[in-house]
Amino acid sequence: MAVIPIEERRFPKTLVLFDVDGTLTPSRLNISPEMLDCLQKLRQVVAVGFVGGSDLSKQQEQLSVSGENVVNSFDYSFAENGLTAYRYGQQLASQSFIQYIGEERYQKLVNFCLHYIADLNIPVKRGTFVEFRNGMVNISPIGRNASTEERREFEQFDKVHNIRLNMVNALREKFGDYGLTFSIGGQISFDVFPTGWDKTYCLQHVQKEGFETIHFFGDKTFTGGNDYEIFEDPRTIGHTVTCPEDTMSQLRELFHI
Ligand code: M1P
């Protein structure tokens, strides 16, 4: 399906933004052909973008169709909450976490996390407990090398034992003066970024574009979830979904696609 210019779409002043994991795809898995078809149809009528917490390489894996560059498949691509941003395939200027926090404070934070994780008694530990990204640092008590099955098991274990919540509370107490937000968004980790650099950060990239309506669809729209701030933001109309199938069904109803 050829992409038509924004001004020729049925609602050229409307932007629809999507969270990735749990909204466009199952957590950390790939987009389905049905969802791709649905998004292509949607892109005929409105502007379409994604805003995910992960870095762009993961979104490329999850959202790319036959290796196509994901930033060309959406009008707006926002990785790391918009700290890495693309508009019509062109990269926009962004800030960085390390510039904000500085090396000394960053190392205090990381050292604390690694000591804390070393002392944790959990059923499984794998590798990559700290993932350094452009706009945030992602911390995982089990480690980002966990398999899909190990992820699921950790998520269930965490629901009972509050491993991430307790760790985040310890970090808030220890580093309360750093101006950071700790956000539990996915299955095995939490994101750490300067307060305000949540998903609402991406809205500054679209603010001057003249959109009259901005819809946001996400699954973690509850207080403390990583979709909460943008879902609640007065600049967006928020929609809560339960899974990618629910996203498609709400889109079909709302936009008659
Ligand atoms: O998009 C939600 C989250 O997805 C991943 O979380 P997890 O690996 O814990 O399932 C991470 O990329 C995280 O940064 C992101 O917020």
UniProtKB/TrEMBL annotation:
One of its GO terms (biological process) is mannose metabolic process. It is found in: Cytoplasm. Its EC number is 5.4.2.8. It is an enzyme of class 5 (isomerase). Keywords: Cytoplasm, Isomerase, Magnesium, Metal-binding. Pfam families: PMM. The active site is at 19 (nucleophile), 21 (proton donor/acceptor). It catalyses: alpha-D-mannose 1-phosphate = D-mannose 6-phosphate. Its main location: cytoplasm. One of its GO terms (molecular function) is phosphomannomutase activity. Its cofactor is Mg(2+). Pathway: Nucleotide-sugar biosynthesis; GDP-alpha-D-mannose biosynthesis; alpha-D-mannose 1-phosphate from D-fructose 6-phosphate: step 2/2. The keyword Isomerase applies. Homodimer. Belongs to the eukaryotic PMM family. This is Phosphomannomutase.
